[in-house]
Automatic annotation (TrEMBL):
Coiled coil: none annotated. This is RAP domain-containing protein. Residues 687-696 have a biased composition (Gly residues). Residues 659-686 have a biased composition (Low complexity). It comes from Volvox africanus.
Amino acid sequence: MWTFCNIHPLDLTWINKGRTFLQGKARSATVSCKSIENNATTCSLSDKASANLNRPPKPKAARPKKQKPSESAGLASHARFKRTPDSSASPSEVHRTSTNTKPTPPAREAHSVGGLKRRASSSAPGSTAGIPEPELPSDHHLLAAARLAALDPDDLVSALQGGRYRSSTTHPPSGTLLRASHHHADTAAGDPIRITPALLLATCKELRRRLLLDRNFRPAHIAQIIELLATRCGDREEGNEAAAVAGDLLLRHRGCSQGLQAAQRSTEQIELARLLPRLIPALVSLEFADKRAWEAIFRVMHSNMDTYTGTEVAALVPALVELDSVIMPDGSSSSSSSSSSGGSITGFGSQQLQRPAMHLRLQVLARDGGATGDATAALLLWLVASSLKQVEVDQVVALTRRALLQGDLSPSGLCRLLRATALLGNRLVESATEAMDLLQRHESSLMALLAQRLADQAAAGRLRTHEFTDAAQSFTRIRYLHPSFVVELAAATAQGLRAGALKRRDVTVALYTCAYFGLQEAAVGDLFAAAAVSLEHRLEADDFPALVLAHLAWSYAIAGGCGQLPQRGRNREVVERFLQKLVAALQSRVGMKGVRPPAEVSGLLRFALQIWSATHPSLAQPVLLEAVGLRQHLHGQREGQLSASAASLVDGGARSDRSGSTAGAGAAARTISNVSPSSNNRSSSGRDGGGSGNGHHGSCTRDVESSSSSIDIKSKKDRSVAAAAAATAASLLEPTFVSELQKDVYRQLRALGYKPLMEERVSCWTVDILFSLRGHRVAVEVDGPTHFTTSRPYHSLGASLARDTSLRKLGLVVVPISFKDYETLSQARRGEYLRTRVELAVKEAETEAL
């Protein structure tokens, strides 16, 4: 017999609930009620299955708890529910910033005030967050949730925020269930109850009934409860249910519902509007996808936009951008449909950024301030990363300037500003050169000031490891070199390597950045030596992905071509030993016959092998050359195989082999397409592994060699291998682009009496223009903007420096022609300029030969 006392006669909900509960337990119960003198009701529930009450309960399987996200510093309201857009990335994203691929915001990064938490199916291995916490039995949940839901609103919010609730029988709230005699139904009086996510959700469900009649709850109470749901349930299995409960709380509460439905400003609407900068991020974190409810919320938000502070506006923008991933442009939920727009349609959340009220508020924020520097930086990052079709440069520049003027901008905020600038290149013109030119025209000193601030923070030791990594990725994306920052990056990474406190990603990014810019400093050489010591042991113990190995090969090959590697002593021996092990690891991963490496791996590795084939032949192993389609260029191929007549090139005609060429059979023709003047930096095909367009990364690897047709194939296995090789070669066929700048240089050289050849093959390389002079082969390399930094003064990037070193090792006299020097000359002076450069280079070669 279970006895419940002190149940108010007007609240028979608990009796019905008890009946439902027992029926759910497959028990048959009879309920009888009798009145007593104190106007209360005593209920007796006679259980026909009471004989089995002493049977020990069956243990319940613990449901795996999802990993708790770590809280990150940032905006007070939004950051509690989110991971950040500039969070750390996977190895494949480590260098994606250098390939003009738009990073997923935060992190994206993953790195930050950024991406909202997503519900995962399991927690990370080894994490204490993955250990299921002990859950209260379901009957305890029932009673504990009822007790909590009956509390005074302030006491309820306080208990939920504290995470524990201590029950008391001294002064019970009206309508609550007190102690039950059965030991399954309650805990000991006064024992604290831990409020788990499941109990929080059950309490909110009970609270929905109370909200229909209880006017003691204010909209502020509802906002606090929804924030708690987002924080504790948003990334768990209960996330979808929590989103529905949050919507019910918002719509069932009288003040909130009236505020959303009011056509004009009312007391309820004004009170609700003040809470939206907190409510909207919480609802987005819960992935609340009711579009009609969102439309009502946004109507209230826009009508009260002028009342929000700068910090509140800064909290709204990231949430609105994240809403794009929750609700599709057609109004459907992201969980039930997928977007096929490919980012071409402005999302539902980003559409709110285009509304006049929000647009005007952002302009005021940029002009007059009102938010902290970090909040402004986060706002700018999310604005640039949104699905808006257009982002105004004036607005970006104004917000960047405003953030820099704030005295409270942290190193993390500086990194966000730099990341926003890097993303801007993709958003506007998909070119770092043109994006930086636009910024230069709007604010000439803006980037220099931002880079100097970061360098100062690095020199003062205030940058954390992931901030170094984030800033380095952004600098490479926009090709902006600040020598002091690179030196500090190299020194900090080398120190971290010796302490054994760095992740592989941080090391890889630092090596990549130093090689990318080709800066010759002692700290850079020290970094490559320290990395060789650390990575040598990791190569033996860890299973490195092929992409990471390819990035390491690219970085060390460029560093060797730029003279960054140690040239003497023990450090040189350490680096040499590491390179041999790196090549062995590459052979085991990408050197298998008939297996074609992925395009990104192949591109990075090809350029490394091109350099090694000239500067360090022992590293250019045949199996690797064959895997990336370079082996045929080293064996039996003669110059001129892919040369076309100079006249057809200049006239823009299709390219064909020279009739007098002695090239091997099966050499395929290459087509040359003109490019726009704005893209005249693509003086040769291919990429440099850093996405900056530096020529010769893979410029000699695009031909189809059909030499397999002459092979005597005797078995099916041989035929399959040959077919795979042919497929590899076919996949490398791409048009070669010759810029107008290169064509003009060719015309001038021909007018001077030289006999130039365009796009001439030399070993693994394709030379822009090649001719002979007094017994010397002269290679003229025409370098457009992407061969240089966007910072002033211009510096050649590491890939271009390594290319020139490799061509000199092959016996060529290299004459690099820079666009910045050549294009400033008049047509009458260009010929004389070229003659002087060629004669000077040949004279130096003759002097060295003596």
